[in-house]
Amino acid sequence: MKKLVTISLFVFGVIVTAILTASLIYYQGNKPGNNTGSSQTSPAVSLPLTEITKHNLTSDCWLLINNKVYNVTSYLSTHPGGAGTIIPSCGQEATQAFNTKDIGRPHSKRATAMLADYYIGDLSQQTMPQ
Amino acid sequence: MPIRKNLGILAIFVLILIPLARWLFITPLNLRFFDFLSTMTSLGQITGIIGLALFSINLILSARFKIIENFLYGLNKVYNFHHQIGGLAFILILFHPLFLVISYLSISLKSAADFFTPFNNLAISYGILSLLLMIVLLILTFYVNLRYQNWKFSHKFLVAVFILALLHALYIPSDISRDAVLRVYLISLGFIGLAAGFYQAFLSPWLNLHPIYNLKKINPLNSRIVELELEPRRQKINFFPGQFVFIRFLSGAIGSESHPFSISSASATNNLQLVIKSLGDFTAKLKDLSPGLPVAVEGPYGKFSHLNILNKNQIWIAGGVGITPFLSMARSLDNNYQVDLYYCVNKPEEAVLLSELQEIAKTKNLRVIPWYSSEKGYLNAGRILELSPDLNNRDILLCGPTAFMFSLKDQLRKFKIKRKNIHFENFQLI
Lengths: 130, 430
What we know:
The structure holds 2 protein chains of 2 kinds.
Chain A: H1 2-29, E1 46-47, H2 49-54, E2 56-57, E3 60-65, E4 68-71, E5 92-93, H3 95-100, H4 109-115, E6 119-123
Parallel strand pairs in A: 1-6, 3-5
Antiparallel strand pairs in A: 2-3, 3-4, 4-6
Chain B: H1 3-26, H2 29-32, H3 36-62, H4 66-72, H5 75-107, H6 109-115, H7 122-143, H8 148-156, H9 158-171, H10 175-178, H11 180-207, E1 212-220, E2 225-232, E3 244-249, E4 259-262, E5 272-277, H12 281-285, E6 294-301, E7 313-319, H13 323-331, E8 338-345, H14 354-363, E9 366-372, H15 373-376, H16 381-387, E10 395-399, H17 402-414, E11 422-424
Parallel strand pairs in B: 7-8, 7-10, 8-9, 10-11
Antiparallel strand pairs in B: 1-2, 1-6, 2-5, 3-4, 3-6
Helix pairs in contact in B: 1-3, 3-5, 3-9, 3-11, 5-6, 7-9, 9-11
């Protein structure tokens, strides 16, 4: 048992140190250009609600959050809370679900920032939600 | 091995399999193991759930409940389980964030680094703090040779680690927070564990539930071995010869942690005698105690006794101070038993209480064979067969240093002695 514990501690130490060190080096190297890559500012595509509701599958999942549309299909399987928490909202208005998670608290700032990576467009204003 | 002796392992398996089975049913499996990343995330969740369940079970095991001792067949087995399960839980909990971080790495290095940084998110911070404290405490357990009472004190903080781990599991958005069955199960198991751990670490010494004895006599048997005699104030404990107790001095400068020692007195006598060899600094201080001190006696524990073996034709083999349980057995022996007792020490002056054993041998079916390794070399199975030719018809009880017991056990196995006929309690608490 002691040997296994030693090996595990070693692997843990190496991986955590590697990630923290690499990110420190990378982060410092990229400091000036750090705030350039925000996809929130990219030109918006207008998407009608009828289009959004079509993407209600685990293999094709869009979410509508604060009138913005996100294609989170590739993220489903990596969601720390499990894919099952997102799947019921696929193709639907998910602002409430996103803001309250399942225990009434909002997602972290980090999660909100990560969401931006999946942004694909805005809800078209002509078609108001019924 | 008979099923009866493996029931404990089976019960632990079931306790772990329940949350795992529930977890498997919440979301379709093809989503759990959809691709590499989802598989890694799933492994992260499994290691977290099983790690938490094992941690809960380990706290329950640590509480020395009589019912669990009976279930697992001996407190030494409970502690062996505790040690193995603790190690396994620690490994799983170490791998839990490593599996989960892989998904973050696929997004960006920064999000992976954020994942390991506390204070970004409360639920993750609980987890990080819990893991850091656990690493420190278990490094102390596995790698640092602390004094017994210091180690024991440090080990109590694992209750705090567990509280943080439980908060982490409850607040992190996951299958545990989403699924009521999983949540209720893990909270229940966690709270039983927490109550047990809290009871053992803090409450049990305060409640004074154990009978109080007075230290009556300190009898040095040689420069390193001392026999303590304790007299019950009111209630006395009932024990089988061969069992052990935990004793805790209630006043004086000797420290208030409890320590395990084998009983050497006969089970019928009123006073309790313990033969103790000075190994750590607690045992070294025992010689300087003055009579009259109050001592709490917890127990008895253990299943190692000639009375627990059906075959009354037995061989007892003691290594050094491992003679203690056999002293109790010899002092309690009745004439239905036929026993050869090998008493192995290095030199004659180390064979404490030999004369008393030889005195008992005159009236009972007990043959005492002192074995001095400085004169005859180490005792081995071949020599035992020469002196006790009916070896194969006898049950063999071993007590002594771990290496001594394992070496003899292996040799006896080579002489076609069945495993079930060799009895010993490997008693190492750390």
